[in-house]
UniProtKB/TrEMBL annotation:
It comes from Pelotomaculum isophthalicicum JI. It comes from the Bacteria. Residues 7-88 form the Type III secretion system flagellar brake protein YcgR PilZN domain. GO terms for molecular function: cyclic-di-GMP binding. Keywords: Cell projection, Cilium, Flagellum. Residues 95-204 form the PilZ domain. This is Flagellar brake domain-containing protein. Pfam families: PilZ, PilZNR.
Length: 214
């Protein structure tokens, strides 16, 4: 697990009996037996942990969500107050890119990849859903399967908007039943790890908010 927990890694922490009442925190220090986190906060309210108390921890790294239960070992002060948690022996992991596709409407600019050094000509579209591996668009023109396109959109994260520009491949295109437009399923074929993590964090935040409102 210590290979995946990293300093400055954003995590969520919840008491074991809290019914998923998550607080935001981050990793500040790591060794083989334990790791230190900043005081978890939720809307400025701190989560105060006691020595020996068990907590649930969840975080995303490399397109994977990790979840585990661990024990609070105490407190430490290193310029800021920290809680010391035991490194878990067991954890669960879920590959998000393969399974998470969230319905979301975003303004998207897309363009065929130009030939001969020409500037790309961008068109407007709306997204229908998004995952770490692709996006489904509602477009008003036709694109043949296997067409490579540039896709630009902005995701609103809590830390501020993040612009994403990737290259995608049209996997399938079909008529939308409710409009005269067409739906295009796009697979991202040129995307870096940071962009994948940003998209996954954005989708994870949406799903967390949806669970909170249920």
């Amino acid at each position: 697990m210590q290979n995946w927990i990293r300093i400055n890694q954003n995590i969520r922490v919840a008491r074991l009996d809290s019914d998923d009442d998550w607080y935001a925190s981050s990793v500040q220090d790591i060794n083989e037996r334990e790791f230190c986190i900043s005081v978890p906060l939720k809307e400025s309210r701190p989560l105060v942990l006691s020595k020996g108390e068990q907590v649930k921890v969840s975080f995303i790294a490399d397109m994977t969500r990790y979840e585990f239960i661990t024990k609070t070992r105490g407190r430490r002060y290193d310029n800021i107050p920290l809680f010391v948690l035991a490194m878990p022996k067991e954890y669960t992991r879920v590959q998000l890119r393969d399974f998470v596709r969230v319905p979301i409407t975003l303004e998207v600019d897309y363009a065929r990849i130009p030939i001969g050094g020409k500037e790309p000509v961008f068109l407007k579209a709306d997204s229908i859903d998004l995952s770490g591996g692709g996006i489904r668009l509602l477009i008003n023109n036709d694109l043949a399967a296997e067409t490579r396109i540039i896709i630009k959109f902005t995701i609103p994260l809590k830390t501020g908007p993040q612009e994403i520009e990737v290259v995608g491949r049209v996997v399938r295109i079909w008529a939308d039943e409710r409009t005269r437009l067409r739906q295009a399923a796009i697979q991202f074929v040129k995307i870096n790890r940071k962009q994948e993590d940003l998209i996954t964090r954005f989708l994870f935040n949406i799903m967390s908010e949806q669970r909170r409102l249920r």
